[in-house]
Design brief:
Helices cover 43% and strands 8% of the residues. With 79 residues, it is mostly helical.
Length: 79
């Protein structure tokens, strides 16, 4: 029998990502997850996924250990 790992609902991952962006480092990531109705294990799994997707990065100097990576859009001009 093959064990299939359940994927986290995209909705929860997006909600936590948005909450991290709006939080700006004020609350830690676990408390933030609890505020939007996630359990600690689910929050940790979401953090791992967001790190692997390079959407967040680790910072140890704030109450929240992670911040959203801001991407710069590139504009190409034709001559």
């Amino acid at each position: 029998m093959i064990a299939v790992k359940n994927k986290l609902p995209m909705e929860n991952k997006e909600r936590h990502y948005q909450a991290l962006a709006e939080n700006k480092g004020r609350l830690n990531e676990i408390d933030l997850g609890e505020m939007i109705g996630l359990e600690e294990d689910e929050t940790r799994q979401i953090i791992v996924q967001l790190l692997s997707e390079h959407k967040i990065e680790s910072h140890q100097y704030q109450p929240c250990n992670y911040t959203v990576i801001k991407t710069k859009s590139k504009v190409l001009f034709k001559k």
